[in-house]
């Protein structure tokens, strides 16, 4: 019998054995701690020879499980994750909400009732994607959090070329997770995780498929508001267009296209305009005696480190130089 925890394998690399042995209770406990409370019953006359391994754990998780005996597994209603079963060997019978599914790759989500029967040869890879991870990916596509959970079609039908490509990608993730690259590049791991989630949303039909197809390339009002609010609140900081996209919960491409379509500008040009506006107000306040400071101090306060470029940008926006505003305040302000 072997029972291990995360990091137990030498060097912390490769699959981690969570349980291996013949004790029904210990295998049941190990699986329940990782997935959800469930019932497990040995239905044949064999003694189990179970193996439960963790292959990857991050924003998504990948496991391998085999019982080595005929078993019935009844998790009941799934909690807050999507369970994707990828059969390696053997077979069985799967019911979701009382409906029989093929034991080929399938996906079951939160709130759906799952029960399974596996034969002694069955070995499955199990991909676990938290509901919040799917919700975040949908929010990026839709511009705001969806009003309900994503419900996927249960069968991953490889007659659909896109689905077949996605399942092949999921299989390749197994090799990648054990590779030296995954251990030295957390960013590569994150990209692969995102690729699996985004690919699933595009390949497998779900309750928001039509909305994703219609809105995926558009920046909706909620996302635009988040972007402009972020620019206003962080204008004094050294933020990038990537920071703005993250705050808006959209891709860089969607952010740029949305600003161009709705505001006829770019995100960075919009940010610069907000900074110039703040600088303009500060200079008027100094001119009116409500504050103190110099042109250089105001420019630096709002992120303009090159005074020559600041003066040129300011003149284009307000038809006067910063020093002229400092002398005469808002009088003569002819901003277009």
Automatic annotation (TrEMBL):
* Pfam families linked: AraC_binding_2, HTH_18
Name the Gene3D superfamilies on file.
Homeodomain-like
**Annotated keywords:** DNA-binding, Transcription, Transcription regulation
Q: Which residues form the HTH araC/xylS-type domain?
A: 225-328
The family database entries (PANTHER family) matched by this protein are listed as: HTH-TYPE DNA-BINDING TRANSCRIPTIONAL ACTIVATOR EUTR (PTHR46796:SF12), HTH-TYPE TRANSCRIPTIONAL ACTIVATOR RHAS-RELATED (PTHR46796)
- What is the name of this protein? AraC family transcriptional regulator
Question: From which source organism is this entry?
Answer: Kitasatospora cathayae
